[in-house]
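> forwarded from #structure-qc
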């Protein structure tokens, strides 16, 4: 962190915290502790309202943010003195002794005791050394007292990390607790001023319902975060609202995708946590039915299925909750987003498993069959698809908005059903080969790995542009490679080999690229969209052998200030930050899988920047901002539900013990809602085979073959990519069937 705070925007949220705490069952008074934490973490009020600017346009919101749901535009823990000193010398061994007891003088050669004056000198030297180290850490530095600012201490502590290789003295429990308090601050402000609203504006202290009676967009999306954080009072209030006020009998259309991932996903995750871990995560005794969540989920899903009533089975973009009638998109010539149509499968499959109703399952899997029958070249899908015809529209290829979670759900469907549906692993493998062949390039001059776009098709020019949304990819690659196992365990599997190592290295390099987005701005926060300077002609990943592929610069986990990477280009229309979760999502996966603590440190720097720069003027909440390049950044006066449901949840899990929701036991949907992995059983089956393929090759295609052995104990089988000749007549016939005016794909300013 910078030693100075010229704008006086924050004090270290953990400056008054000197004790370590566990997550569940503290011995001290929770009321007293929570109050102290809230006071220390609460954002400091601004001296004026100058940092607030009303939203200037109807901006993007979630993974596919140019949709309907938003009408508005968009501290270090210092530890005790004894912890700082002894933490430097103690090893991980429980029996480790203080330094001065390692070799008692009675053990010296000859067995003679040293003279007392010699012992005194030695002890004096040790004490002087400890005093010097204390000065370095800031504990005894008079400057820290004169300034009244803990940032100097934090900076010294940060410097020490590079000396010793890892932050052995870091209190991660305490950092998780500070994330929890940020959640409590945000949610308490919403409870007081916007309860039941679907949008919340933390500066104006008002909100808006998206349907006549509201859907509890913020409440339901945050349910499982409250549970993981053991917030029983907040959860009790939320459950009462769901029981008394939440109804789907409303004559209003909603986004099929967003309602599925946020509302249906939130209810299903809450059901999973409350029934599988009844005494662990915020157990409440409110007299309400244990089936509260699943009953609401089934009711909502039955209404959403109306969107799937198309000739092809691909869902329409929206659905009326009361009439259960699907509605095509009002834009994009009526086409649905490909990612949205293919990112409802985890939710509907889990609901099918819970209820035994296979029609949820069949509707979800039919979509995947239709997409595969379009023969996407090298596994890369255009970002639009006509629901009625089941045919792609245009040839815009990207892993940003409208394309992202298609790829995410391929591998997660494979993992969700315990590697019993290898068709999805095969599709993931093929897509990964296509990404490496067509989309991966390198920035200039520092050679960051860039996952670019092909807006006019795979045979046209590359566009070196990355949405923040693409930041899900490093973590997803790592998850696919090991199946959720820690890397050291996955490497012991017989199926592990050079391809697996290649994919893990790719995940690490992409993670660097996204973290650097946070280091090149004055606020320490990433913009919505980043462009890159690249080599001319582009240096492509697939054209280089593994030994020839460049690697980006090493980035310090304690980097402070603005890094001067000319590789990054941030355009004025893209400088906003919506408190998005994708980067911390990947940091969470990378930490869990590699065990490299730098990913936790990066997440902590990110959290500090959020707390410092997104605080509302009254110090009671946090808002998205209009520019990451301005100090102080103008506030957009909007708190997206994913701030609570995803960003703070992934930060909390990043700092939590690794046995909280192990990656080998769960899959997270694209809204960070946790579902269990399960066996297909006798009732469910994939129900379709890949068109013109049917070939399965053991161990071929991707590091996910290691994941199969890792988590199911069987031999993983991956559908091998097969060279297919595209028949021109068939393609032309498909275009004729669409019978629609070709609308040229254009980039919308600020689109993500």
């Amino acid at each position: 962190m910078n030693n100075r705070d010229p704008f006086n925007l924050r004090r270290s949220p953990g400056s008054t915290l000197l004790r370590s705490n566990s997550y569940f069952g503290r011995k001290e008074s929770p009321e007293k502790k929570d109050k102290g934490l809230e006071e220390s973490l609460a954002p400091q009020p601004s001296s004026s309202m100058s940092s607030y600017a009303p939203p200037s346009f109807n901006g993007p919101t979630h993974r596919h943010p140019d949709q309907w749901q938003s009408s508005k535009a968009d501290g270090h823990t210092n530890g005790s003195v004894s912890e700082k000193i002894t933490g430097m010398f103690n090893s991980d061994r429980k029996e480790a002794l203080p330094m001065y007891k390692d070799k008692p003088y009675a053990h010296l050669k000859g067995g003679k005791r040293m003279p007392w004056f010699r012992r005194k000198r030695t002890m004096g030297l040790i004490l002087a050394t400890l005093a010097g180290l204390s000065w370095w850490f800031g504990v005894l530095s008079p400057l820290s007292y004169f300034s009244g600012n803990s940032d100097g201490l934090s900076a010294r502590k940060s410097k020490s990390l590079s000396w010793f290789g890892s932050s052995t003295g870091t209190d991660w429990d305490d950092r998780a607790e500070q994330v929890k308090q940020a959640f409590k601050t945000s949610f308490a402000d919403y409870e007081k001023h916007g309860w039941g609203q679907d949008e919340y504006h933390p500066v104006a202290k008002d909100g808006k319902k998206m349907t006549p009676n509201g859907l509890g967009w913020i409440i339901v999306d945050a349910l499982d975060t409250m549970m993981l954080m053991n917030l029983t009072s907040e959860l009790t209030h939320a459950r009462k609202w769901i029981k008394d006020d939440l109804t789907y009998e409303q004559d209003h259309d909603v986004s099929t995708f967003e309602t599925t991932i946020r509302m249906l996903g939130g209810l299903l995750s809450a059901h999973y946590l409350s029934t599988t871990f009844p005494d662990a995560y915020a157990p409440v005794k409110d007299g309400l039915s244990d089936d509260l969540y699943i009953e609401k989920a089934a009711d909502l899903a039955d209404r959403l299925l109306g969107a799937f009533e198309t000739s092809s089975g691909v869902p329409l973009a929206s659905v009326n909750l009361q009439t259960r009638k699907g509605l095509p998109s009002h834009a994009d010539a009526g086409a649905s987003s490909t990612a949205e149509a293919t990112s409802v499968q985890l939710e509907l499959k889990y609901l099918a498993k819970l209820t035994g109703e296979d029609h949820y399952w069949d509707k979800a899997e039919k979509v995947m069959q239709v997409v595969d029958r379009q023969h996407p070249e090298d596994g890369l899908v255009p970002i639009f698809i006509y629901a009625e015809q089941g045919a792609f529209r245009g040839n815009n290829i990207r892993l940003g908005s409208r394309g992202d979670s298609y790829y995410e759900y391929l591998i997660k469907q494979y993992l969700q059903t315990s590697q019993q549906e290898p068709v999805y692993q095969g599709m993931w493998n093929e897509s990964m080969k296509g990404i490496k062949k067509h989309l991966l390039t390198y920035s200039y001059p520092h050679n960051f790995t860039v996952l670019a776009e092909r807006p006019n098709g795979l045979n046209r020019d590359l566009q070196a542009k990355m949405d923040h949304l693409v930041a899900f990819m490093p973590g997803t690659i790592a998850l696919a490679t090991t199946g959720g196992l820690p890397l050291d365990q996955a490497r012991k599997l017989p199926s592990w080999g050079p391809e697996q190592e290649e994919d893990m290295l790719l995940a690490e390099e992409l993670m660097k690229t996204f973290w650097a987005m946070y280091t090149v701005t004055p606020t320490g926060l990433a913009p919505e969209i980043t462009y890159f300077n690249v080599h001319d002609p582009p240096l492509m990943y697939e054209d280089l052998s593994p030994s020839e592929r460049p690697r980006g610069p090493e980035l310090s986990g304690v980097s402070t200030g603005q890094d001067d990477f000319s590789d990054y280009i941030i355009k004025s229309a893209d400088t906003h930050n919506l408190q998005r979760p994708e980067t911390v999502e990947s940091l969470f996966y990378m930490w869990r899988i590699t065990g490299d603590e730098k990913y936790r440190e990066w997440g902590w720097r990110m959290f500090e920047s959020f707390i410092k720069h997104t605080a509302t003027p009254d110090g009671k909440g946090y808002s998205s901002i209009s520019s990451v390049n301005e100090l102080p950044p103008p506030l957009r006066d909007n708190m997206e539900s994913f701030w609570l449901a995803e960003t703070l949840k992934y930060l909390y899990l990043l700092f939590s013990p690794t046995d909280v929701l192990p990656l080998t036991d769960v899959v997270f949907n694209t809204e960070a809602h946790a579902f269990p992995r399960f066996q297909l059983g006798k009732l469910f089956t994939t129900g379709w085979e890949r068109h013109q393929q049917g070939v399965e090759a053991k161990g071929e295609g991707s590091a996910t073959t290691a994941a199969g052995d890792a988590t199911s104990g069987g031999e993983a089988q991956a559908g091998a990519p097969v060279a297919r000749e595209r028949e021109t007549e068939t393609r032309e016939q498909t275009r004729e069937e669409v019978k629609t005016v070709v609308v040229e794909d254009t980039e919308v300013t600020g689109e993500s």
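QC bot note: The first helix runs from residue 30 to 41. The chain has a mean pLDDT of 79.
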